[in-house]
Design brief:
There is one protein chain. This protein is α+β, with helices and mostly antiparallel strands. It has 15 helices and 16 strands. The strands form three sheets. Strands 1-5-6-11-10-9-7-8 form an eight-stranded mixed beta sheet. It has a five-stranded mixed beta sheet with strand order 13-12-14-15-16, sandwiched between helices. A three-stranded antiparallel beta sheet has the order 2-4-3. It is elongated, with a radius of gyration of 28 Å. It starts with 15 loop residues before the first helix and ends with a helix. The structure holds histidyl-adenosine monophosphate.
């Protein structure tokens, strides 16, 4: 048997009501905050991610699906959406003009990670990016959007963790402090982190190796090294969140695994869903457009993992009604009745009513059992006799009440179905 590649997921029809609900709620919430949808390629030049996400990150060093096309260009399946949105704005000349620019996306992403519950190699994100506003209130707006989405999905117990990782100015002193700290543990660090010690010590803080994580726990904290402007930005953000009534914890351990972040970083954590408990993460990235070769344009945003949202919703006891039950199921016997059933169903569907009839020649009893199983609201019995006499029984499956109707009179049938 051919199996799906390791780390990929099938989303089967019975799961879809959750996905549709999340996608609709995400679109509606984004629209409520004035965000518009953007779509971009599934693969990009590898350079976009090495420069945008950062060549010392786990994502770039260990997790990218990179391949050569027939012209020997190096391409990469998108591991996330932020770098692509930045590329699209730069490429389409959207870095000047009316600001802010507010965009959202629903995408699949690819990362070669160790699969486990809530972590797959192909996964799905809902993301929002707000460009052209450097204020702490724009950070607060994006966090408020995320918070509204999580509440609208019915997720309980998710906690917002915020931190500031400063700007390039304060980063210099912090980098020195980190290097000093990690140098005393050089021997214990993993090979990648030993290199990172010289190139980008901040990335040791989000290394997934348990030994490095243990050492990172005792490392100096970004929040103690903020310059005056970054500290003021963080204070303003906290005041805005307080004013909006959004509860949060300042968590110096949140550093995020991508290089483009500056100042604010945040995560929503749902402790109920196991080890992969970060359902949503984001932050400010004021240098990204410049890093990828475009003009400077500040931005802030987040992305939520849809599989993790589904897990958190289920853990919160959310139930989504499956709306596929048809209004009518026609149980037919014989060829002529089947042809008539097809015609009736076609008429009903034209009127926007869901209707089904037997397609595989089941017995009448089996058809009724099937109608019950798919949750048909009404059934109509149609055989030779009914065709000849022009009378058939319409049964309300909930109450059991039967009404006699003329199967040729679809107008009356439609009226009865709406009752
Ligand atoms: P990220 O933290 O790498 O950030 O991913 C965002 C969310 O995607 C995570 O919180 C998680 O829910 C989900 N996720 C990540 N990796 C996986 C995986 N392997 N399997 C399942 N779900 C996963 C970003 O991607 C940034 N681009 C977010 C952002 C937007 N920052 C600013 N704007």
């Amino acid at each position: 048997m051919i199996k799906k590649p390791r780390g990929t997921i099938d989303i089967l029809p019975e799961e879809m009501p959750f996905w549709h609900f999340i996608e609709k709620t995400a679109r509606d919430t984004a629209a409520l905050y004035g965000f518009e949808e953007i779509r971009f390629p599934t693969f990009e030049s590898t350079e976009l991610f090495t420069r945008g996400v950062g060549d010392t990150t786990d994502v770039v060093q260990k997790e990218m699906y990179t391949f050569r096309d027939r012209e020997n260009r190096s391409l990469t399946l998108r591991p996330e959406g932020t770098a692509s949105v930045a590329r699209s704005l730069v490429e389409n000349g959207r870095c000047s003009g009316t600001m802010p620019i507010k965009l959202y996306y629903l995408i699949n992403c690819f990362r070669y990670e160790k699969p486990q519950a809530g972590r797959s190699r192909e996964f799905y994100q809902f993301g929002c990016e707000l460009y052209g506003a450097s204020s702490a209130s724009s950070d607060a707006t994006v966090i408020s959007l995320a918070d509204t989405l999580i509440r609208r999905l019915g997720i309980k117990g998710a906690r917002l963790h915020v931190n500031s990782i400063g700007c390039p100015t304060c980063r210099a002193a912090y980098r020195t402090a980190l290097q000093e700290y990690f140098r005393s543990h050089t021997e214990e660090l993993c090979e990648t982190c030993r290199t990172r010690l010289e190139t980008n010590p901040l990335r040791i803080l989000d290394c997934k190796s348990p030994v490095c994580t243990g050492i990172a726990n005792g490392a100096p904290k970004t929040i103690d090294y903020l310059c005056e402007e970054c500290a003021a930005h963080m204070t303003l953000l906290q005041s805005s969140l307080d004013a909006m009534g959004i509860a949060y914890t300042v968590d110096p351990k949140i550093v995020r695994g991508l290089d483009y972040y500056t100042r604010t970083v945040f995560e929503f954590i749902s402790p109920m869903i196991g080890a992969q408990s970060t359902i949503l993460g984001g932050g400010r990235y004021d240098g990204l457009t410049k890093d990828i070769g475009g003009p400077a344009l500040c931005g802030v945003g987040f992305a939520a993992g849809i599989t993790r949202l589904v897990l958190a919703m289920k853990e919160s006891g959310v139930e989504i009604e499956d709306s596929h039950a048809p209004a009518l199921y026609i149980a037919s016997m014989g060829e002529q009745a089947s042809i008539r059933a097809a015609a009736i169903c076609a008429r009903l569907r034209e009127q926007g009513l869901t209707a089904e009839y037997d397609l595989i020649g089941r017995s009448l009893k089996a058809q009724m059992k099937y109608a019950d199983k798919i949750g048909a609201r009404y059934t109509l019995m149609l055989g030779e006799n009914e065709l000849q006499t022009g009378t058939a029984q319409l049964k309300n499956m909930q109450t059991g009440t039967q009404t006699e109707i003329d199967p040729g009179d679809t107008d009356t049938l439609i009226t009865a179905l709406y009752e």
